[in-house]
Amino acid sequence: xxxxxxLFSTRAYAYLVDALCRTGTFEAGAVERxxxxxxxxxxRIATRCDGRDVVLVGGTISDTDTLxxxxxxxxxxxxxxxxxxxxxxxxxxxxxxxxxxxxxxxTAKTRARLLSSLPAASRGLRVLLLDLHVDAVAHxxxxxxxxxxxxxxxxxxxxxxxxxxxxxVLGCTDAGRAKWVExxxxxxxxxxxxxxxRRLSGERTEVVGVSAHVRGERVVVYDxxxxxxxxxxxxxxxxxxxxxxxxxxxxxxxxxxxxSLERIEQSGLLTALVxxxxxxAALSRSTPFLQVDSVAALLAAQLTDGA
Length: 307
Prior knowledge:
A seven-stranded mixed β-sheet has the order 11-10-9-12-13-14-15, with helices on both faces. A six-stranded parallel β-sheet has the order 2-1-5-6-7-8, with helices on both faces. Strands 3-4 form a two-stranded antiparallel sheet. The longest helix has 16 residues, at 63-78. 29% of the residues lie in helices and 27% in strands. By secondary structure, it is α/β, with parallel strands linked by helices. The radius of gyration is 21 Å and the shape is elongated. The protein starts with 5 loop residues before the first strand and ends with a helix. Strand 5, helix 2 and strand 6 form a beta-alpha-beta unit. The chain folds into two domains: 6-150, Rossmann fold, CATH 3.40.50.2020; 153-293, 3-Layer(aba) Sandwich (Rossmann fold), CATH 3.40.50.
C-alpha cells in the first residue's frame, strides 16, 4: 500500500496543513526554519520525501511568501519528491492581471512564470488555484507545470444557504460576476440580482441601479474577494435603498487590510459576513460578525482524486 501524500507548507499556511491532516488522508512533513542576523532565511526539509507524492501549501500573499513557496518547492524536488503539487489557496496580484497601459508589468503573469520555472518532478508538477479573480490567470502558467483551477462553489453554496435560510435573493457587487452568481442562484433555486456601476475615475465608481426586484427580500451578496470592502458596501447600500430587508455577504477570499473589516462591520449595512480560510488574514480576524469556513475538505478531495 502506498504511503499517504506528504504535506508541507509555507510558514503562513501551517494552519491549512493541520486542517488537511485532520481529514486523515495526509501525513505532515516538517521544515526547519530560522533567520540569520541579516534577515536571510534558513530553511531545511526535515522529513524525507524520496519517491513520495508531496503537496506544498502556500499562498502568494506577499512577495516574501511567494519566494518562500518557490524556494521550498525547489528543495522538495531536489530532495526526491516523485510528484509535487503546489496548493495556492489565494493567488494574489489580481490588481495587475493584465496591462491597460503600454509598458505596465503584468505581475500575475511574471509570478506564474516564476513558478513555471520549477523543475518538474519525475511523476509530474501541478498547481491548484482556488477561485481565481480572473480565470485567464491559469493560462499564464507554462512549460511542465499543470494548472488546475479549483472552484470553491460547494463551500460558497453552503455558506450562502446558511445565511439566506429559506428565502433570499443572491446578489453580486457588479455585472462582472453576474453569470457566476446567476448560475449559483439557479442551483439554489433562488432569484439573482446585480448592480449597475458607472466609473467616475480610476479609483471611484458609482452605483446607478439594481437589476432585480429585492424589496421585502433578504439579500446575500457574493464576491470572489474582499479587500477594503468598498465595492461590497456600495452594492449593499444599493440593495438596501432598493428595499432589501437585510443584507449579508459571502466571499471566497478575505484580505481585510488595515481597519477595513471594522469599517465593513461598523457600516451597519451587513448582518453577517462569511469568507473561507484561503487567506490567513481572515482566520486571524474571525469574530461573531466574520465567520470563516474552511476549504480543507474541498482541497483534500481535489488532491486525493488525482485531478
